[in-house]
Automatic annotation (TrEMBL):
<protein>
    <recommendedName>
        <fullName>Putative T7SS secretion signal domain-containing protein</fullName>
    </recommendedName>
</protein>
<dbReference type="Pfam" id="PF21725">
    <property type="entry name" value="T7SS_signal"/>
</dbReference>
<feature type="domain" description="Putative T7SS secretion signal">
    <location>
        <begin position="6"/>
        <end position="148"/>
    </location>
</feature>
<dbReference type="InterPro" id="IPR049082">
    <property type="entry name" value="T7SS_signal"/>
</dbReference>
Length: 420
């Protein structure tokens, strides 16, 4: 696929990554408002009289309709909330991707400037593998294309997940005829009368994908570590740009997209599916805790590699890298390696310091002397860091219980990670 817009002819991130996150969030707010109106219908039916003054056939019909009004609108409201959560998930993904595209634009521009300064006639093609890099800006432009490609792939994947979910949810909505698989089965008259009050989710889909671009971008997730690998003689500029891009690090599309099938299956389950959809929607709040895909051995000069790099000892510690990944997954943190001379392992966004222990075979804790050494280490870590993560992934339940007993006075400063 040869896109119309690329880094060589535009700096507009919304041409490189189509979509408006704020419009998606507005649509989500509208869906939430519609859900509130539907909740009111069920609430009115619940609080209204159960014994209306009329009798006979009319009263029987009211009893039937009242029972439906108690369940169906509330269920549809949860469907709407599920769709709203999906829209916000995709909005977050688009914002992430467009932030990455902005990084790509900056890298590309810097590469062009370096080439021009060197008097090199540059091209848009990346340098061929194995060829000597004679263009000082080529590596920057190549890195820019990799960053943009990754962001476009994720945005497309998220858009496809959203489209599939909204298609599934809208399959049961009234659109002039009732479908056999709809969750309005048995209440055709009521559904037709309420049609003007309901959002049609397939119209939301049309608004989201008005140009049909989502369907044209079929690509799988690209986990190439090369996005963060930049061979350049200008690391002071390019390195921090890549390493400090929060959006490139935390990919909402990877998380919410895995939730979309569950929401769709729950929504298709019938009138009784509301509680299951609600459970799925609540899971959206837990997405930052969903484990990401970590490389087993991170590539040199990547953010992942820095998590295990000890600047004081000048060596990479795989055990520290593993502990950092567990800490990030379990507590939803954003960590950076602490600088040389700080004598702690990591810092988070707020400047909180972390100094980890553990992640060794518990077989070594079999004598009193080893336990005494461990507790001494704990005391030293607690004295110099705000938070002490203890990786207990290789410890027994009894050993973990012993450590928990010892750190009780400092419980608010101890993070246990890796516990099975």
């Amino acid at each position: 696929m040869n896109p119309l817009w690329h880094l060589g002819n535009t700096t507009d991130v919304r041409l490189l990554i189509p979509g408006k996150p704020e419009a998606l969030r507005d649509d989500a707010d509208d869906l939430d408002a519609a859900a509130v109106r539907l909740d009111a219908v069920s609430e009115d039916a619940r609080t209204g009289t159960e014994t209306p003054s009329w009798g006979g056939w009319a009263r029987d019909q009211w009893d039937h309709r009242r029972s439906e009004l108690l369940t169906v609108p509330a269920t549809v409201a949860e469907i709407y909330r599920g769709a709203a959560g999906a829209l916000r998930g995709h909005a977050d993904t688009l914002a992430w991707a467009q932030a990455g595209a902005a990084t790509a634009v900056d890298l590309w521009a810097h590469g062009v400037d370096r080439s021009r300064a060197a008097g090199v006639l540059w091209t848009t093609a990346p340098p061929a593998a194995g060829d000597p890099v004679t263009d000082p800006g080529a590596a920057h432009r190549h890195a820019a294309t990799l960053v943009l490609d990754r962001c476009q792939r994720v945005a497309a994947q998220s858009g496809e997940a959203l489209a599939a979910l909204l298609d599934e949810l809208s399959a049961g909505m009234p659109d002039g005829q009732l479908h056999g698989n709809q969750f309005f089965a048995g209440v055709a008259a009521w559904a037709a009368g309420l049609a003007d009050m309901l959002w049609r989710l397939h119209l939301v889909r049309a608004a989201v994908d008005h140009d049909g671009w989502l369907g044209d971008l079929r690509s799988e997730w690209d986990a190439t570590a090369g996005v963060f690998r930049l061979v350049t003689d200008d690391p002071l500029h390019a390195g921090p740009v890549l390493a400090n891009t929060e959006g490139l690090r935390d990919n909402p599309g990877r998380w919410w997209g895995t939730l979309a099938p569950d929401l769709a299956l729950s929504a298709a389950g019938g009138v009784a599916s509301g509680s299951r959809v609600l459970t799925g929607v609540r899971r959206l709040d837990e997405l930052p805790r969903v484990p990401r895909e970590w490389p087993e051995h991170p590539a040199l000069n990547t953010w992942e590699y820095s998590l295990g790099w000890d600047p004081d000892a000048k060596l990479f510690r795989l055990s520290e890298y593993q502990t950092a990944t567990r800490l990030i997954d379990q507590y939803g943190l954003r960590l950076e390696r602490a600088p040389h001379g700080s004598h702690v392992d990591w810092l988070d966004d707020a400047g909180t310091t972390y100094d980890a222990m553990g992640n060794f075979d518990g077989v070594y804790l079999h004598r009193e002397r080893q336990w005494s050494n461990l507790f001494d280490q704990l005391d030293r870590h607690i004295a110099k860091a705000d938070i002490v993560p203890i990786d207990v992934s290789q410890f027994s339940a009894e050993q973990i219980a012993t450590i928990r007993w010892y750190v009780q006075p400092f419980a608010d400063r101890i993070y246990f990670v890796g516990e099975q």
